[in-house]
Specification:
Blueprint: H1 5-12, E1 30-31, E2 34-35, H2 50-72, H3 95-98, H4 105-126, H5 146-177
Antiparallel strand pairs: 1-2
Helix pairs in contact: 2-5
Length: 185
C-alpha cells in the first residue's frame, strides 16, 4: 500500500514543520573545520521536500561518478564493433553525435534509463523519508557501526558532489582542447 508522506515523516521521527536542524539533520554539512551549512537559495526550508532533494543529490552524484568514468575509459578501451572503433569515433566527446540514430545506441540507453527510473519512482514516492533517500537496499553492504555508516554516507555525498563538478570541468576541457584524456594542450 502507498504510504503518505506525512506517515513516512512520522515513522522517521521528523515533524513536517521545521525540526530546527539544517536540512532536517541530514549528513553532508560536515566540513574539515566544523559544520558548513551552505544553502544560499534556501531549499532546506521546504522540509516536506528535503528527502526528495537528498534523493536527487545522491542520484546525480552517482550518475556523475559513472559519467566521469564513461568520459575517460573509452579513450583507452572500446567495445567491439566498427561503429565504436577508434577510427569511427576518434574523440569520446563526439560519440553522442556519431552514435545518434533512430534506434541506435543512444535510443537504447534512453530506453534502459527510462525503465530503471520508472521502477525506482515507486520506491521514491512510497518511502519518501530522510532515512530512505538514495537507499536501493544496498545498506547491508555498509558497516554495522552507526558512526561508520555515517562516515560512508558523508563520503558518498562528498565524492558525488566532487564528481558533478569534475564531470563539468572534464567535458569543458575535452571540448576546448579537442584531444583525448588527459585533455591537455
Amino acid at each position: 500500500a502507498r504510504r503518505e508522506l506525512a506517515v513516512a515523516y512520522e515513522d522517521a521521527g521528523i515533524d513536517l514543520m521545521d525540526n530546527g536542524k539544517f536540512a532536517q539533520g541530514l549528513v553532508g554539512a560536515e566540513a574539515a573545520f566544523g559544520r558548513y551549512e551552505f544553502d544560499p537559495i534556501g531549499f532546506s526550508k521546504y522540509t516536506e521536500l528535503v528527502p526528495w532533494f537528498r534523493e536527487a543529490e545522491l542520484k546525480h552524484g552517482r550518475i556523475a561518478m559513472l559519467a566521469w568514468l564513461g568520459l575517460v575509459v573509452p579513450d583507452f578501451v572500446r567495445i567491439p564493433g566498427e561503429a565504436y572503433s577508434f577510427e569511427a569515433v576518434p574523440r569520446v566527446i563526439d560519440a553522442h553525435d556519431a552514435l545518434n540514430a533512430d534506434a541506435g545506441p543512444n535510443f537504447q540507453i534512453i530506453l534502459f534509463i527510462s525503465i530503471v527510473e520508472l521502477c525506482c519512482a515507486k520506491k521514491v514516492f512510497e518511502w519518501n523519508s530522510v532515512e530512505t533517500a538514495g537507499d536501493y537496499n544496498l545498506t547491508r553492504l555498509f558497516p554495522e557501526d552507526d558512526e561508520a555508516q555515517k562516515q560512508m554516507r558523508i563520503a558518498e555525498l562528498k565524492n558525488g558532489r566532487l564528481a558533478m563538478i569534475a564531470f563539468g570541468g572534464a567535458v569543458t576541457q575535452a571540448v576546448i582542447t579537442g584531444k583525448p584524456f588527459p585533455w591537455t594542450f
